[in-house]
Specification:
membrane; alpha+beta; D15-like; 29 strands; signal; Ubiquitin-like (UB roll); Bac_surfAg_D15; 762 residues; 15 helices; cell outer membrane; 16-stranded antiparallel beta sheet; five-stranded mixed beta sheet
């Protein structure tokens, strides 16, 4: 049967091949050498990449895209859906007449020369005998010994540029006894140009360098680096800044001149005045100064820092030699800044979806001021409100309502505010100091009301495009429970651990996070996101009170600050993502989440707002939000029959101190570019650090692998570039609360969960 299918596929494949031609099915290359020390086999991948054209896509001897082309009429003109299928899903036959073996041989010879094999012999033969109307081209190459570098000589003159080039010789990419390689020669020219650009050679270009190669030395070469005779004189001298000027109100089409008297700040001319921007703040992002040699790094750093302030639409540095040909080695630099709109007010009506399963309409009113104190400070004020109901696959939980209102204000100052003068001059990005003050009021009907206040003070900066540091040395959070219902108080009385988590909570500490992200680098086949974080509370205060009270902290007799018990814990989080871009359309995305929170001293449980939950549209999608864990704990098995509060209360129980979660998702286009699909699998659970008698099976143990929940499913994404609507249907494959880690028996794979969300899950 397989032979018959292959035969039929072969006949169909050649249906559209013209008379006298052949279907080209590919080529191969064999490299040999009479010298044993030459690794001829290693050259074959390099030469194989030069073989053109690519044959038709083949799978198990069949060519599906060519078959579609032939089935839809082949070379005949078609219209309508048949033409669309033929052109979009099919492909015409690749013919032997298109292979041009002589051109391929020339490309192979060029590649061998570029790698130091200067006297190769190439031949080819066409095999048309093995398959009817199909042909393959066989190439063969014979190479000698690879040429190596015997001597490297840089320009020998005493002019400025020759001296500067010779000074770079210790860092040269070219080394004696290394194989001759054209790509390395090209990279060496780029390296020299980059170094010279940092030493003031503003007009220099790598094209002004030329190599003279002597290859008459018995498989050795001497390389002479020389300056072209046609290099202009202005490219051969270094340039210094004579005058740096800043224009903070520049508009496209404006002319530059001294029509207005500038503000003289240090050695800079600052236009027009300081009524809008303080000169000191803007110049904190400027890294070019009068008298300095031109540096491309400082030039680009200045543009990046000014744009990173967020208050300018455009930033440009315009350079002008002091005379028409610039032979005196002096430059004027005009920094031209076009302002962005200073203030904005925006209102958004949105669908709120939270990790605890609550969803509903919400409104956010945001005010933004990009220059609040004339120092490019960003002021953000947000007013939020939402009315939510809990949505889950469990009818006992559905229908619970919650109202939330709040306000917060943030100030981002574009510099490091500290007792020390810290500028982080090596970074291409603007460091920031961040202040945040917020308030939230939550009303969970049938349960409680809660007020919470928070304040943060910290810093953020990026050393590189892929690396960001976030340090918040001051974090204060205070939560107070109000008006608990009798039913809620009864449930808390039966759950001491949860009651402590809901006690009035005072968190005084700090948090720290590092983000490494290569997703912004286009063209990478492998992309990574790694983000470890630390969160501490009560450490220094705990030491202070231990000395003051002459006793260690105890959850039963906690140390207090103004009558309020301090939360003490240490928490570590790690999120890693890996994206394998199989093609530009097919992506395998994976994520691993880990977290560990250790309460100590005053606390034997993490504050409720710091505990982990699992499940939901951005977690394990086969289980509703906060319907898993901790561990083997199953709240439904312990509920009182007929007690609706107890049944609906269970999601408060399903939090933990430890989290482990993994996700994998294969993403592919359906109707590109707007409709995409995905297959996914999720696994994970949460656990407790300390035993809780009211949540049996919740403590972490060595058997944690057998306590993982697993779900899988498929989904669609409507991607319109500026937002993504995601629909995922997931089924549980393994539920740790079922005997022996089984799964629910209702339905094909158990009760499916439909997730509707905005954005990708990771």
């Amino acid at each position: 049967m397989v032979v018959l299918l292959a035969t039929l596929a072969g006949c169909s494949s050649t249906k559209s091949v013209p008379q006298g031609d052949y279907l080209y099915i590919g080529g191969d290359i064999k490299v040999t050498s009479p010298y044993p020390e030459t690794d001829a086999k290693a050259l074959e991948p390099e030469l194989n990449a030069a073989i053109r054209p690519q044959p038709n896509l083949s799978f198990l001897g069949m060519r599906p895209k060519l078959w579609i082309y032939n089935a839809m009429g082949g070379n005949r003109e078609r219209k309508g859906i048949a033409n669309w299928i033929k052109t979009r899903l099919g492909e015409p036959p690749v013919l032997l007449s298109e292979s041009h073996p002589d051109r391929v041989q020339a490309a192979m010879i060029n590649r061998l020369y570029n790698n130091g094999y200067f006297s190769p012999t190439l031949e080819h033969s066409i095999d048309t005998t093995s398959k009817r109307k199909m042909a393959m081209v066989h190439y063969s190459a014979t190479v000698g010994k690879q040429y190596t570098i015997q001597q490297i000589q840089f320009p020998q003159g005493n002019d400025s540029v020759s001296i500067a080039i010779r000074a770079t010789e210790p860092q040269s990419l070219l080394k004696v006894n290394d194989p001759y390689n054209l790509e390395k020669l090209i990279a060496e020219r780029l390296r020299v140009n980059e170094v010279l650009k940092e030493k003031g050679f503003f007009f220099f270009d790598e094209s002004y360098l030329i190599y003279h190669v002597d290859s008459t030395l018995n498989n050795k070469v001497n390389i002479y680096v020389r300056l072209k005779d046609t290099a202009p004189q202005k490219a051969l001298i270094p340039y210094r800044y004579k005058q740096v000027s800043i224009y903070t109100d520049f508009s496209l089409g404006d002319s530059i001149g001294d029509s207005e008297a500038p503000v003289q700040f240090k050695d800079y001319k600052y236009y027009p005045d300081e009524e809008t921007f303080k000169a000191k703040t803007i110049l904190n992002a400027v890294f070019v100064e009068n008298g300095d040699l031109y540096s491309r790094k400082r030039h680009l750093q200045t543009v990046n820092r000014l744009m990173d302030l967020g208050t300018f639409k455009f930033a440009e540095v315009r350079f002008t030699p002091l005379d028409s040909i610039g032979l005196d080695g002096r430059l004027n630099a005009d920094i031209l800044l076009t302002q962005a709109k200073k203030k904005s007010l925006r209102a958004e009506i949105q669908t709120v979806q939270k990790s605890n399963g609550y969803a509903g309409p919400g409104i956010t009113v945001s005010f933004r001021n990009r220059n609040a104190l004339r120092g490019a400070e960003l002021l953000l004020i947000n007013l939020v409100g939402s009315f939510e109901s809990q949505i889950s696959g469990d009818s006992a939980r559905s229908g619970l309502t919650s109202m939330e209102v709040g306000a917060d204000a943030e100030m981002h100052v574009p510099r490091i505010i500290s007792p020390f003068n810290i500028r982080i001059a090596s970074s291409m990005y603007q460091p920031r100091t961040r202040f945040r003050l917020g308030f939230r009021f939550i009303n969970r009907q049938e349960f409680f009301q809660q007020n919470s206040f928070n304040f943060e003070y910290g810093y953020s900066w990026r050393q590189y495009a892929t690396t960001e540091f976030q340090i918040n040395p001051v974090q204060v959070q205070y939560s107070r429970l109000l008006n608990p219902t009798p039913a809620f108080q009864k449930e808390l009385a039966q759950r001491p651990f949860l009651a402590r988590a809901f006690d009035q909570q005072l968190i005084i500490g700090g948090n720290y996070r590092l983000v490494f992200n290569t997703q912004g680098i286009e063209g990478r086949k492998h992309q990574f996101y790694i983000s470890p974080g630390l969160d501490f509370s009560g450490g220094l205060w705990g030491l202070f009170y231990r000395v003051k009270n002459q006793r260690p902290a105890d959850p039963e007799f906690p140390n207090t600050f103004r009558g309020q018990a301090l939360s003490q814990y240490a928490k570590f989080d790690l999120e890693t993502r890996y994206y394998f871009n199989i093609t530009d359309k097919l992506v395998l995305a994976t994520r691993l989440l880990g977290g560990y929170g250790l309460p100590y001293g005053n606390s034997n449980v993490l504050p409720y707002i710091k505990q982990y939950g699992i499940g939901g549209p951005n977690s394990i999608r086969a289980f509703p939000a906060r319907s898993l864990g901790p561990g083997l704990y199953n709240p439904q098995a312990l509920q009182e029959p007929g007690n609706e509060v107890s049944q609906s209360f269970s999601y408060f129980d399903q939090t933990g101190d430890i989290r482990l979660e993994g996700n994998a998702e294969f993403r592919f286009p359906l109707l590109d570019p707007y409709l995409k699909g995905a297959f996914f699998v999720d696994a994970g659970n949460i656990w407790l650090v300390n035993e809780d008698p009211t949540r049996p099976g919740g403590k972490f143990s060595g058997n944690f692998i057998n306590q993982l929940a697993i779900g899988a499913g498929a989904g669609m994404r409507i991607d319109v570039q500026f937002f993504v609507i995601r629909v995922d249907l997931a089924y549980p494959l393994r539920d740790p609360t079922y005997p022996n880690g089984g799964r629910p028996k209702s339905g094909l794979f158990g009760a499916g969960v439909l997730n509707l969300a905005i954005g990708y899950p990771f």
